[in-house]
Structures are given as structure tokens and as C-alpha cells.
TrEMBL record:
InterPro entries: Nitric_oxide_synthase_Oase-su, NOS, NOS_dom_1, NOS_dom_2, NOS_dom_3, NOS_N, NOS_N_sf. Residues 65-72 form the Nitric oxide synthase (NOS) domain. Its EC number is 1.14.14.47. Its cofactor is heme. It catalyses: 3 reduced [flavodoxin] + 2 L-arginine + 4 O2 = 3 oxidized [flavodoxin] + 2 L-citrulline + 2 nitric oxide + 4 H2O + 5 H(+). One of its GO terms (molecular function) is heme binding. Coiled coil: none annotated. This is Nitric oxide synthase oxygenase. Catalyzes the production of nitric oxide.
Length: 356
């Protein structure tokens, strides 16, 4: 099958499902005929805004690693397909940050830039997430987030310099049509950060904080055979993403020993379960801090219950819920959720998000 034939087939599958779900079955044949003619003439086709909206929402619904899919049809779509200059890209990205953050009442949002038409006709975002902390390799170890060390080095290569703290916000880095990447600072007032405190222990002594909104920006959105390589999107955090991974992992911020010291735990042997105790209280602190400071977040038990609702809704619509079990189970007390005890087919459905 040629690339053009593949594109026609992918378009047919998407348009059929999309228009059926939108209650527009009578328009399927006419729209598909238009698309085929466009592909034959130009080698590609463009989505209508309604197709873009529903396609992006379907991609979230089909995301096997995501536990938060109950809200798939509430995603806000920001259409940036006409943007094609540095200032426009920067403005669209900062608008996404502001719009999605919404003063803490986070809106699930995706900004979709122009579709991929080769390296010379493409927008590329280099950030893993729009907001992320820098990581600096030093003789004494990493300062900041070790996950960000390679990207931080890239930022420095193109002229950016951070302050060298554990929580330096990285700049936005992007390129247009195959040109060299450029960086632009995110205005400080646009970055919602949460200081981590605990209702009982003096966790503020840790000096830890985290940004409020996880905006993934290094995945490719595919809808009906069309790829959007610049399509940053966000939901809100599940507490364990921060408390059990970002701040706790040995190769990230590794705060459990410091938490244990504040809690005066016996760390002389593993059997005291000091790591478990510290981990639970660090997660308590994350949830407490976000809620106290008015930033949307969900605990892993509620998230699992919401996923159960999603499963029921999908069953009522005659759709099979796919999932990557390893990613769906939370990193803290997974066996307390129904997800842990249930298998899921890990089939990849489209539209979807893919790693580049």
C-alpha cells in the first residue's frame, strides 16, 4: 500500500468514527469524497475545526497510559494551525500556559500547531513539558532535576543561563521549518508554583516546590493519518506523580531521606519501613499544598474511581477500554485500586498521541 493509499485509509477510518460519534452519519460520504480529492491534488488534507476538536479528544480517550480519561470530552482545543513565526509560536505557548492554568482551576487543554509536512514545513517544540525545572551536572552531582540534564545542556548551548538553583524554570525552545532552535523565557507571573508543606510536620524546611500544570509537549498527535508534531496538552496532576516520583525517586529529587529526618524516623534498617512512611507523608504534603494554594489535583484513589466511571461510560457506548496496566496503576498502594486487579488490552487505537 502506498503512502497516499495509507493516508486515504486512515482518513476513511477516522471520518467514519468521528462523524458517527458527532451524529453526522449522512455527511460521511460527502466529506470523505472531498478528502480523497484533496489528497489526490495535494498529497495531504486538512481537518475542519470540528474534526480537529473531536480527533484531539478521541486521542486522549485512546491514551492507554492515562488514568484521567473520564474527562476526555471536556478538553479545550486551541487552534494554532495558522501560526508560523517565532512571535506567534511564543504567544500561543504562553497563552496555553495562562489559559490552562486558569489561576489554579486547571482546564484540560491542547494547542495544535500546523500539521507536519516535512522537516522544512514543521514546528518543533524541544521541551518535554512546557514548564519543567532545569538539571545541572556538577562535580558534586546534579543540581535540580536530573531528568532535565540533557535539555538544560541544549538550552545553555543556544545561549540560556539559569540561576543554578534546584528549581530553575527552563525556557521554551522551539524551531520553525527546520531552522535553528530558539529559546524564549516564560514570564514568571505565568508559572504557577506550589510550595510543599505538611499539615503536621515542618516540610517547608525542605525548600521543595512543584509547578502546578503538567503540559506534555514532546508527543506527536495523529488524527486520521495527519501528524501534528507540535501539540502540547495537559490535564492536571495526580498527586503521586509528584509525591511518589518527581520528588521521591532516587534519580530525581530524592527527598525521602530528608523527609525521614524531619519526621524523626528510624532509618537504620529497612524493616522499620521508614521509606514507606516518608513516602506517604510526602504525598499527603503534595495534596495538602495544592489544595491549600487552590491548584487542581487528584489523589490516586479518586483517580482510580474516576477511571472506573470512564470504563462504565465506554461500555455503555459499546467501546472497549484499552490500557497499559503498568502505567495505569499508581506508584503508591496500587493494590488498593481496582485497576491493579484487572487486565486491560494494550491495543493502540487512533487517533492517539505517540512519542516522537
Amino acid at each position: 500500500m502506498s503512502k497516499m493509499e495509507q493516508l486515504v485509509e486512515e482518513a476513511r477510518k477516522f471520518i467514519t468514527i468521528c462523524y458517527e460519534e458527532l451524529g453526522r452519519e449522512k455527511q460521511i460520504e460527502e466529506r470523505f469524497t472531498q478528502i480523497v480529492m484533496e489528497i489526490e491534488k495535494t498529497g495531504t488534507y486538512e481537518h475542519t475545526f470540528d474534526e480537529l476538536v473531536h480527533g484531539a479528544r478521541m486521542a486522549w480517550r485512546n491514551s492507554n497510559r492515562c488514568i484521567g480519561r473520564l474527562f476526555w470530552n471536556k478538553m479545550h482545543i486551541l487552534d494554532a494551525r495558522e501560526v508560523n513565526d517565532e512571535e506567534g509560536v511564543y504567544n500561543a505557548l504562553t497563552h496555553h500556559i495562562r489559559y490552562a492554568t486558569n489561576n489554579g482551576k486547571i482546564k484540560p487543554t491542547i494547542t495544535i500547531f500546523k500539521q507536519y509536512n516535512g522537516e522544512k514545513n514543521n514546528i518543533k517544540i524541544y521541551n518535554h513539558q512546557l514548564i519543567r525545572y532545569a538539571g545541572y551536572e556538577t562535580e558534586m552531582g546534579v543540581i535540580g532535576d536530573s531528568h532535565s540534564v540533557p535539555f538544560t545542556a541544549l538550552c545553555q548551548e543556544i545561549g540560556w543561563n539559569g540561576e543554578g538553583t534546584n528549581f530553575d524554570v527552563l525556557p521554551l525552545v522551539f524551531s520553525i521549518d527546520g531552522q535553528e532552535p530558539v529559546y524564549r523565557e516564560i514570564p514568571k507571573e505565568e508559572v504557577k508554583e506550589v510550595d510543599i508543606e505538611h499539615p503536621e510536620y515542618p516540610f517547608l524546611d525542605l525548600g521543595a516546590k512543584w509547578y502546578g500544570v503538567p503540559m506534555i509537549s514532546d508527543m506527536r498527535l495523529e488524527i486520521g493519518g495527519i501528524s501534528y508534531t507540535a501539540a502540547p496538552f495537559n490535564g492536571w496532576y495526580m498527586g503521586t506523580e509528584i509525591g511518589a516520583r518527581n520528588l521521591a525517586d532516587h534519580d530525581r529529587y530524592h527527598l525521602l531521606p530528608a523527609v525521614a529526618e524531619i519526621m524523626n524516623l528510624d532509618t537504620s534498617r529497612n524493616s522499620t519501613l521508614w521509606k514507606d512512611k516518608a513516602l506517604v507523608e510526602l504525598n499527603v504534603a503534595v495534596l495538602y499544598s495544592f489544595k491549600k494554594q487552590g491548584v487542581s489535583i487528584v489523589d490516586h484513589h479518586t483517580a482510580a474511581q474516576q477511571f472506573g466511571q470512564f470504563e462504565k461510560q465506554e461500555a455503555a457506548c459499546g467501546r472497549v477500554v484499552t490500557g497499559n496496566w503498568v502505567w495505569l496503576i499508581p506508584p503508591l498502594s496500587p493494590a488498593t485500586t481496582h485497576i491493579y486487579h484487572k487486565p486491560y488490552p494494550n491495543d493502540i487505537l487512533k487517533p492517539n498521541f505517540f512519542h516522537k
